[in-house]
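User: I've been trying to design a sequence by hand for this structure and keep getting stuck. Would you show me what you'd pick, starting by listing the structure so we're on the same page?

Assistant: Good idea, let's start from the same input. This is the structure you sent:
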């Protein structure tokens, strides 16, 4: 038997689960016994689960072009993949970079990591310098078209 104490709208309740099966439970609430039908057993997880909404695709509709899509294609930012320390900055504002070019060297988890460009373009902003500590997701560099 499991015993629980609940407070509903400020009123205390003592609940004892006397019998439990997959479909039914016999519970005692403040001395009164009830038979309860179980609709769905909650899933208990030890780690949080990321749930993303699924995109709805309609093949009959054509995609709508927006300014945001154009902006995403012409500018981009490089973010820190892990928390760490910037060891070396290999570029400066105004430099032209290629996809895959090493922009920064960063120490994270006692390892030296190369931070590479994910696109070709011109460096429009440099958000860090050597010796800076960064958190995961911090913007390091902005690249324009």
């Amino acid at each position: 038997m499991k015993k629980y104490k609940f407070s509903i709208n400020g009123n205390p309740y003592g609940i004892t689960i006397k019998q439990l099966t997959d479909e039914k439970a016999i519970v005692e609430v403040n001395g009164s016994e009830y038979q309860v039908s179980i609709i769905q057993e909650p899933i208990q997880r030890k780690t949080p689960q990321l749930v993303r909404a699924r995109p709805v695709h309609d093949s009959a509709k054509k995609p709508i072009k927006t300014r945001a899509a154009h902006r995403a294609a012409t500018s981009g930012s490089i973010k820190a993949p892990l928390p760490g320390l910037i060891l070396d900055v290999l570029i400066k504002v105004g430099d032209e970079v290629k996809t895959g070019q090493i922009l920064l060297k960063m120490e994270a988890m006692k390892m030296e990591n190369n931070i590479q460009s994910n696109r070709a373009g011109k460096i429009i902003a440099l958000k860090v310098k050597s010796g800076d500590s960064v958190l995961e997701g911090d913007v390091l560099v902005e690249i324009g078209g």
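That's my pick for every position. To get oriented when you compare it with your attempt: Residues 2-37 form one domain. Residues 7 and 13 are 6 Å apart (CA to CA).
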